[in-house]
Design a protein that fits this description.
The structure is a homodimer. Chain A is of the alpha/beta class. Chain A has two domains: 3-32 and 74-107 and 263-334, FAD/NAD(P)-binding domain, CATH 3.50.50.60; 113-261 and 349-424, FAD/NAD(P)-binding domain. In chain A, 32% of the residues lie in helices and 27% in strands. Chain A is built from twelve helices and 27 strands. A six-stranded mixed β-sheet of chain A has the order 5-2-1-9-21-20, covered by helices on one side. The relative contact order of chain A is 0.15. At the A-B interface, strand 5, helix 5, helix 11 and helix 12 of A face strand 5, helix 5, helix 11 and helix 12 of B.
């Protein structure tokens, strides 16, 4: 029977797998983690608003009833398009008739890889836990710090990159400082915390229409976020951030820096021997296969594809649509038909900024503030996988909304000494 | 103003802090972690039934309204009873007029410290996450393993020590194999998993009345747990467990081993220069102070104390009661009164075994099975801190009860390569 291997169980891989549920094929789905992650809400885990199970579902459980599919937890080290073999890091190999590569993207530090540990990005649950730890620990350090300058540095949070994730992080951090932690410290006032959002281009949410960007900036500033546009980061170290603006080079003492600027495609793309764009994404054919290999498809953030002459953005709806197209084209190829050309259906853009504020564009409709926030809320609840997690998220949010509290403020390893910690607490 | 320092925010430390809420003293509460942990339900986190925030509450948040208390997140490296100074690992020192040491206990491997990484114990949230990871990953390895013997070893779970925690772990693991994971694998049947509970003494739950121990054994076996009593573990390695019984030395191939046998007092006890018992617990005076130091009190698992001639067990009610007594005795000492002698009020013992089964002794009443389980459920919900976590736990349990699903089956770092994982999923 035809064997289809899918690499990665993000939005794209999962959509492809489900689209093939009733087809007479054998599917092997390989992912490095045991869960499908609802990335649009990952920033909520990073900011202690949600706990991991609310936005992550075990892949095996999601697909338990799909009998033609086998889930494999493993990491792919290489792909050989000639012998049609996927190699796992444990040395084993898995042959395929058709391959769908959906391993997504990771952070790009624009050649400054040394910034990675100084300014973590937000892609996986472990990223989120690390950012949560750093944010909450910064307030703890500030409480213990007696030197006013050092204390200020602990209480300054820099978010680099004002795309959707950056805007959501900055807004939520301001909320935490102003409301969540208020009154819990004795030597500092958490409301003294500064949240600085830096963006290289001349406005926040660059892909959005300028008027929505302006609305977003106003809502951020109302929350207490300092927005710095046309601001190029030139250096990051343990003590803070160096950047240049129209006023020239400046320095911001900041102990906590979060990276939401660059995105680079998964390294697996290069294993395919297909042409890559500057971001390392695979330049696929209009049918999402790669040149010379009608049996290999690349989808999601890893694929560089245009629709109606416009580049398709790296968002979850696009990944899902590509997953379905790839699945269709495999079945067409099996049946000897001609492949369909991928057409991206743009449902609009949606970003939340914080408590009761968001911006949205749906078709030609643009709106912001509370209605946009309600819309954002329902869309995200709706697309969450599993009734249970919808329930969890709704109750968590209702609670957070009325109590200003955040439920997941647990840091497992405050100091980098897990062993000793186990011994003493 | 009188300065009272409390080390550790477990049940004992928290109870002491709260008891002093309305007293005219300054309190500094130091803990290595930012949360108070409801340890009786920690096994639920280890078995993916609950997520961390359900059983852990931020210390700052719990005590935010107690104005005479300052929370400090830090690790204590030493105590100097002479100069009355507590030294933190960051080099700073904190003076005190009165000191309450409540740093609890850790695992003891009876001199086999090399067993620690082979058979993790269950004391902290990081322990729980590690055990969860190992359990869930074992099924993943079994799914990938082709050699039947190796596969069997991956599907064999050993729990060493049949105290309350061991019994709860074993019962829940059997439940996971039989119900939760059922039908989610293609090459293995999760129900083939073996759960072996080993106990050195001649019955499970040794501190309980023999007839309840017998009931517990029967309920465990009904759940599919293999109970081995009078069984002494002589060796643990990556492949399994070696143990001796009446039949002599035997070998159990088992890739997952969980340690719930020995308990050792926190190393801080020795810093006080007071007499220690064999388990390293501080032998305190009847008023819980240490010999020659009426200003230093030791409470909870770290204290070796007798009440009515009987040793006080290391359970949370005892810790809470000691916390209150220590607080009272400090205030009496300040006012120049005579200290009160600690009397342990035993409310009984309660252990759950799994779905709808438990054993309980309250005063002279003994019961087991469903009623005991209901009782266990309500007691634990009742003592959980915060209305919200009660709500979370109730809904999680209701869900688990009816769906047989467990909500927290998320493994953040399946392989020991977080970096690569970030890159590829």
């Amino acid at each position: 029977m035809t064997h289809i291997v899918i690499l990665g169980c993000g939005f794209g891989g999962l959509a492809a797998a489900r689209e093939l549920a009733s087809s007479d094929v054998q599917i092997t789905l390989i992912d490095r983690s045991n869960h499908h992650l609802f990335q649009p809400l990952l920033y909520q885990v990073a900011t202690a608003g949600l706990s991991a199970p609310a936005i992550a579902a075990p892949i095996r459980h999601i697909l338990a009833r799909q009998r033609n599919l086998t889930t494999l937890l493993g990491s792919v080290s290489d792909i050989d398009p000639v012998t049609r073999l996927v190699k796992l890091s444990d040395g084993s190999g898995i042959g395929y008739d058709y391959l769908i590569v959906a391993t997504g993207s990771t952070h790009s530090y624009f050649g400054h890889d040394e910034w990675a540990e100084l300014a973590p990005g937000l892609k996986t649950l472990s990223d989120a836990f690390e950012i949560r730890r750093r944010v909450l620990m910064s307030f703890e350090h500030a409480e213990r710090e007696t030197d006013p300058d050092k204390r200020a540095a602990w209480l300054t949070f820099s978010v680099i990159g004002a795309g959707a994730t950056g805007v959501e992080m900055a807004g939520t951090l301001a909320e935490i400082a102003r409301h969540t932690l208020r009154g819990e410290f004795r030597r500092i006032d958490s409301r003294d915390a500064r949240v600085v959002l830096m963006e290289g281009s001349d406005r926040v949410l660059p892909p959005y229409p300028p008027d929505l960007s302006e609305k977003a900036r106003l809502q951020l500033e109302r929350l207490g976020v300092e927005v710095r546009t046309s601001c190029r980061v030139t250096g990051i170290d343990r003590e803070g951030v160096t950047f240049t603006t129209a006023e020239g080079e400046q320095r911001l003492p900041s102990k906590t820096v979060i990276w939401s600027a660059g995105v680079a495609a998964s390294p697996l793309g290069s294993a395919l021997g297909a042409p890559l764009d500057r971001a390392g994404r695979v330049e696929v054919e209009p049918d999402l296969s790669i040149p010379g290999h009608p049996e290999i498809f690349v989808i999601g953030d890893l694929a560089a594809v245009t629709s109606d002459g416009k580049p398709v953005p790296g968002v979850s709806p696009a990944a899902k649509q590509m997953g379905r197209t790839a699945a269709h084209n495999i079945m067409r190829h099996i049946k000897g038909g001609t492949p369909e050309v991928f057409k991206y259906k743009d449902y609009g853009s949606l970003a939340t900024i914080g408590r009761r504020s968001a911006v949205a564009q749906v078709g030609k409709f643009k709106f912001s503030g509370f209605p946009a926030w309600l819309f954002w809320l329902f869309v995200h609840i709706y697309f969450l996988i599993g009734f249970r997690s919808r329930l969890m998220v709704l109750t968590d949010w209702a609670w957070a909304y009325f109590s200003f509290q955040r439920s997941a403020r647990i840091v497992v390893v405050p100091e980098e000494e897990p062993a000793k910690q186990k011994a003493e607490t």
